[in-house]
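Students often ask why we bother predicting the structure of a whole assembly rather than each chain alone. The short answer is interfaces. A chain on its own may look different once its partners are present, and contacts between molecules only exist in the joint model. In this exercise we take two input lines together and write out one structure for the complete complex. Read the inputs first and try to guess which parts will touch.
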Amino acid sequence: MNERRNRAWRLAARPSGAIKESDFRLVEEAVPAPQPGEALVRTIYLSLDPTNRIWMSDVDQYMPPVQLGDVMRGGTLGVVEQSHDPALKPGDIVQGMWGWQDYACVASSGLRNRIAAGDATPLTAHMSVLGGTGLTAYFGLLDHGQPKAGETVVVSAAAGAVGSIVGQIAKLQGCRVVGIAGSDDKCRWLTTELGFDAAINYRKENVLEALRRHCPQGIDVDFENVGGETLDAVLALVNNYSRIVLCGLIATYNDDVKVAGPARFANILMKRVKVQGFIVTDFLKRFPEGRAQLAQWLNEGKLKYQVDVVRGLENAPKAVGKLFTGENKGKLLVQVSDEPPR
Amino acid sequence: MNERRNRAWRLAARPSGAIKESDFRLVEEAVPAPQPGEALVRTIYLSLDPTNRIWMSDVDQYMPPVQLGDVMRGGTLGVVEQSHDPALKPGDIVQGMWGWQDYACVASSGLRNRIAAGDATPLTAHMSVLGGTGLTAYFGLLDHGQPKAGETVVVSAAAGAVGSIVGQIAKLQGCRVVGIAGSDDKCRWLTTELGFDAAINYRKENVLEALRRHCPQGIDVDFENVGGETLDAVLALVNNYSRIVLCGLIATYNDDVKVAGPARFANILMKRVKVQGFIVTDFLKRFPEGRAQLAQWLNEGKLKYQVDVVRGLENAPKAVGKLFTGENKGKLLVQVSDEPPR
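Now the answer. The structure tokens for the assembled complex follow.
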């Protein structure tokens, strides 16, 4: 019998407004023993994402909501400690969705990715630029946004895990890139480190006026992570045949009451805009292609990424709130246990 | 010198709320003499369309607004009376956009279509099912909506010139078709004459509840002519990967204040919906293809159409209001002068 303890954050309540720590309950139980066909995985990194807020609610959504009492859902990376699955062996580093807990029993068929032996890329890169958020940027921008050289691309939540990669990929396509973020520090990072042509601090500037100034040729692609007034400002400046990749609406996730859609909705008609709702898991079969391209750009020094690592599973409920207050920059991760030597 | 008089409705004021007769001014002047390269055309039919309201306003729109003092813009069909354009000869029946007037001098290069000699199709068909509204239905539904057999298609303003053709084309694709219209008479027409599977009278029924009942498999394609609450109800029931062809937003054209977008906007994200703004003139180069297919269906008895013909150019300003009150059924036309013998 396994005597180690598994800590798991289970959903205790559906949040009203901002996520509170009391919406979760930390439960300790024995580490489960893997059944035939399963491996025991120890969590190293846990991904925290704005979409966690959606999963916690019971609004109509793109996956079943997390049920009350269930372990909170989340992207994870971990190391195999014990295996009864012939496809997995101790020491293998794998990625999956086993959620907010120290350990889990998984079958190889339920995993998302395995880090190749000899891969020297930092594991945090696999949880950011090469992981779900990098893939979201890659498929959302290129497949749905279809940016062409010379076009103007606007990215909201531009200093976030997705937005920061979107902007850099758009630059690689030869576009003019304007980011919208929540602090001068973030804006400086976008323009001086990541190569954005301009960045707008939405807390200090009128977004519409600033967009008008920074997008003299109008907007051809909007990678929308925020919604609300940000999207409305974009709609004032969209060009004919522009594309809005609707990837997130973080401005409204905490609203208990349904908020209205953008007031300039009619511009979608007038400018023949395509608005495409987008969830990265729809591209699951093409993840290997996306990872390969992102890894190549990363290795060539063409993509930079930043991670914001919070230590300790016990801090996950507090840390997730940072995504909604604008406190974090880059990909927010919880380090649940130490990385193994590689 | 030509002694006949040309009456022309010129835009006198930008409307506030519903269109009023005083927004136009009827001006009488001499019929102009065609210059070299031009022909004099006598208007037979004038098309009245919801988009007239947009052109009269100065909101940001898909074409330049009509300028105050200019002849009101409108789709037209007429007969050549005199020609100094070698490509046109007296008796030719042509279609164009010479607007709300008895006569105009046009060049063949500025025309939209010429009715072939020997064509026995009623001229009103060329101004409806084979004209701009039929083409709007054809390209919007098939190119942007991409309906597949077995899918559910919802059409708003379904008894209108566009909606009634959309629904019939969707039936030809093997879809389940549900129309939304404004009277029991219109609903009966849709189901008994045009083959719609169901029709909802939005003045008597709760649209969301009725859609839920008539779309047990959810909604795959929405051909949206109305917007507002109708669109919001549709968004409650859209399936994953559904398509919303945003062709019109007649519910809001008369609003002076910007109205909010649909409250269920977030469902575009959750259900990965594509919302495609659409103006038929973007398909100008493919009009011959569209006309040929529509004419074939019409000749095979697979498409029915209805026209609502108001007699007399002097009645155009009053008649256009019918589009916004729901008084008319099918394509609204003004007969400006008699058809020639054919």
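Check your guess against this: The CA atoms of residues 100 and 115 of chain A lie 21 Å apart.
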